[in-house]
Specification:
By secondary structure, the chain is an alpha/beta fold. The protein is built from 23 helices and 20 strands.
């Protein structure tokens, strides 16, 4: 029995050339080997695998289960990836010519470029920070077969929010950010309390809502086999006032009059998160503190101190330290610069609507260019310019495909106004900056073996970033292109394997998503120094991770560290904790669980941007985790 796929003939010709030129191992790395496309072989491999991440061509530690539903969700990914690449190749040929389409396919196949979420890359978009105003005022407006009455109570709002997260997350491949969550949940909680509509007492009622929200975010049904990648932002007074201060609640009252109450509402949420982690170490939502920092101090110092103290419990939140309220962190790594949106998306008091995101991310492998240029910086920049241009052609093509899918009625999340295409960027990813600078001979070691960039290395890294930004700025007036240093949970494994094969080099086993790899001996201050210089050049996002062993001795030590990082000019950072787990999944620090008395049986930490059990890591990420450099709080 033959099962035929009707594909674009020039694509098939180019694909067969790639198979012949690069060999069987590249077919396997790309997930397009006959074994991947063979359903029965995949089933056998899946059953024999120790977890789903080691069986999938698109592994994610967010898939914690290995059951029949996970099998069915992964079994056709090689086929949908093949169909997506065929579509991109076809549309690239129409818009930019066959030669450019062939060059893109070879760059993608060989590992010079990497299209993220490849199986769905011609179907739907990546991530979005969603506006909750319509949900609060119009109810389930995005579901045509439902009663579109607005929610009357916090319980109804919670039910509608759950439907919203599930519906949106199954029509995108990335994060579902909810920057307005605390503004609107506060409104419904207060309304119920004022009307005597609550269970037990007002505080119990509020905490039950937050507990329900947290557990529902971690239910795998939200994305069939994964939890929805939900993100929330805890904002200081400055962010709340600028972004939401000009709004009215559904009853006509003004948000600006309740800023202090919303601040307290956020604190209660974080208290519930802290308590929940003792009971079970859940992954979502990813939490970011957005704090305004100007003239060497936190503008809302009282709240910043509270955030610092609370973070000492688990070191589980990201810190976004902005010098202006036009930037908002809405993802584990992505930064949204709302100042670059058209004026019609700005609020009446100079802030912005919260809606912004990315259609798709495609990454340039900097280490590949380092190999190709043979140490010559001018040649490197020439190759970089060409490769970034090729990458933006591919991203432009994907955007056109998504736009056409909207016109065909395939993406109701756009046609029903939940996502606005004009508010989404396309994203140039960069990866392997450290390995690139190291290979180009622009790193050094001190007497203790700590690695750092030379001044020439910092200058060249800056030149790389500036070159990409200049190309982006002149690419088009139709939409915006952003630059992100990508998390690369699986990409950096695959890209490194491909380079090691092509260049017969095994110095690196996995590329880093930091300016210096987490496994590389390096001082904390060097990591901070590099972030302070380079982070601001990544308008689409980059985050500094500091892997911590143990806890700060006291609140003041932690506060001093936070201020040191902020004063150094770091925009976005998080501590990487090493959290102990017992057999009951209680979280704690140490060797014995204080909740149940059972011994430590596992660990949880950030794999790339979210905290998850290390038992869910792919084998490469698991090895990387146990090779990381962990800092004691007294190290520097």
């Amino acid at each position: 029995m033959n099962i035929n796929l009707k594909l674009y003939q020039p694509f098939m010709v180019a694909w067969n050339k790639m198979k012949e030129k690069y060999g069987e191992e590249f077919e396997k790395i790309n997930g397009l080997h006959n074994d991947n496309l063979n359903f029965t072989h995949f089933i056998d491999e899946f059953i024999d695998s120790d977890n789903s991440a080691n069986a999938s061509i698109d592994p994610s530690a967010n898939e914690s289960e290995k059951d029949i539903r996970v099998l069915l969700n992964n079994i056709d990914k090689p086929h949908t990836k093949l169909l997506s690449f065929n579509k991109i190749f076809y549309e690239l040929t129409k818009k930019f010519g066959l030669k450019m389409a062939e060059e893109w396919l070879e760059a993608e196949w060989s590992g010079a470029l990497y299209m993220h979420d490849a199986p769905s890359s011609s179907m739907y978009s990546y991530c979005y920070a969603y506006e909750l105003k319509d949900l609060a005022e119009r109810g389930l407006y995005f579901l045509p077969q439902t009663n579109k009455k607005p929610p009357e109570h916090l319980t109804t709002f919670a039910a509608f929010l759950r439907e919203f997260i599930v519906w949106t997350s199954n029509r995108t491949s990335g994060a579902c950010a909810l920057p307005g969550l605390f503004v609107y949940s506060y409104y419904f909680w207060k309304k119920d309390v004022d009307n005597g509509y609550f269970t037990k007492d007002p505080e119990y009622y509020r905490r039950q809502f937050f507990q329900q929200f947290i557990f529902e975010c971690n239910q795998i049904h939200t994305r069939i086999i994964q939890s929805a990648f939900t993100n929330v932002v805890i904002m200081d007074r400055n962010y709340l006032e600028e972004i939401f201060g000009g709004r009215q609640f559904p009853d006509g009252s003004c948000v600006i009059d309740y800023i202090n109450e919303i601040i307290e509402h956020q604190k209660v949420f974080m208290e519930v998160v802290e308590k929940t982690r003792h009971e079970v170490m859940l992954t979502f939502p990813v939490i970011t503190y957005s704090l305004l920092f100007q003239n060497g101090k936190f503008v809302d110092e009282e709240f910043a101190r509270w955030c610092n103290k609370h973070n000492m419990a688990w070191y589980d939140a990201n810190f976004y330290i902005g010098d202006t309220v036009t930037n908002l962190a809405s993802c584990c790594r992505m930064l949204n610069d709302v100042s670059k949106l058209p004026k019609q998306f700005q609020s009446s008091i100079g802030g912005s609507l919260t809606e912004i995101g990315s259609i798709k991310v495609s990454t340039v492998n900097l280490m590949r260019i380092a190999y190709e240029c043979c140490g010559d910086k001018d040649t490197f920049i020439d190759i970089l310019k060409h490769r970034v241009t090729l990458n933006m052609m591919a991203l432009d093509t994907v955007r056109s495909i998504i736009k056409r899918n909207i016109e065909k009625g395939l993406l109701p999340n756009y046609s029903r106004g939940v996502i606005k295409l004009e508010n989404q960027t396309v994203t140039n990813g960069l990866t392997a900056m450290f390995e690139c600078i190291d290979t180009m001979g622009m790193t050094q070691k001190d007497k203790l073996g700590n690695v750092s960039y030379t001044e020439q290395g910092i200058e060249f890294a800056s030149q790389i970033m500036d070159t990409v930004n200049e190309l982006q700025d002149t690419w088009t007036d139709e939409y915006r292109v952003s630059l992100e240093i990508i998390p690369a949970e699986s990409a950096n494994v695959k890209l490194c394997r491909k380079d090691n094969i092509l260049y017969n080099n095994d110095k690196y086993q996995i590329y880093s998503n930091q300016w210096i790899g987490l496994t590389t001996p390096c001082t904390i201050n060097e990591r901070i120094r590099l972030s302070s210089v380079l982070d601001k050049k990544a308008g689409g996002g980059q985050i500094l991770h500091i892997s911590m062993q143990g806890k700060f001795a006291n609140e003041e030590q932690s506060w001093n560290m936070l201020n040191h990082i902020a004063n150094s000019g770091v925009i976005y950072f998080a501590y990487n904790p090493k959290i102990s787990l017992c057999d009951d999944s209680h979280g704690f620090f140490g060797e014995v669980c204080p909740t149940c008395g059972k011994p430590k049986s596992g660990e949880a930490s950030r794999i790339v941007g979210y905290i998850v059990k290390t038992s869910s890591y792919s084998k490469e990420r698991y090895q990387e985790y146990y090779s990381r450099q962990w800092y004691g709080v007294q190290d520097e």
